[in-house]
Amino acid sequence: GDSVTQMEGPVTLSEEAFLTINCTYTATGYPSLFWYVQYPGEGLQLLLKATKADDKGSNKGFEATYRKETTSFHLEKGSVQVSDSAVYFCALGDDKIIFGKGTRLHILP
Amino acid sequence: NAGVMQNPRHLVRRRGQEARLRCSPMKGHSHVYWYRQLPEEGLKFMVYLQKENIIDESGMPKERFSAEFPKEGPSILRIQQVVRGDSAAYFCASSLNSGTVSSPNEKLFFGSGTQLSVL
Question: Which mean pLDDT values do the consecutive 10-residue runs of chain A (109 residues) have?
């Protein structure tokens, strides 16, 4: 069945560092791809999405590109802030969503 | 406009007891999804409901688990005779309509979850 694999955390970076969280997927067809973020004590929020190959989703300085050839959807941000500390989930689906295990990100001031 | 409300936030049960988790979707939303997050794992889909109907329960364990979304009131996830392995965070999400490419899942809103601990 469809699945999502993302890099294990925790990831710890200093403020203003460059961030990459890797995500690869296995799917039949070409589902939509998502990144969700979960701040402490809150539910998941959609961060960005891409619905077809070569689409780039972006929001709040985060970006991810739908790469069909490498079946990847890596999350990147050029300069992270302390407020970006959260758990990030890669996901796919057009009906029910399938999530990765999540990557915890710590940003140090 | 309140978001998706789940209660209780924390629920402690002893083995063999029943757990009832409630989810009130966003106002106007008629689609509800339940997910379970086990320690160190991602969210696993459990069940998808519309008002008074179960649409997809392919992620529900075959025994002890049930879900409903009545015409009036919140959606309920019920776990009978809980065991330690049921300890997890249970998340509810709601949407205005079902997720499709033309109605993307960006309209899926999550609650803050219920943390179930079985002693």
Answer: 89 96 92 91 87 93 96 97 95 84 94
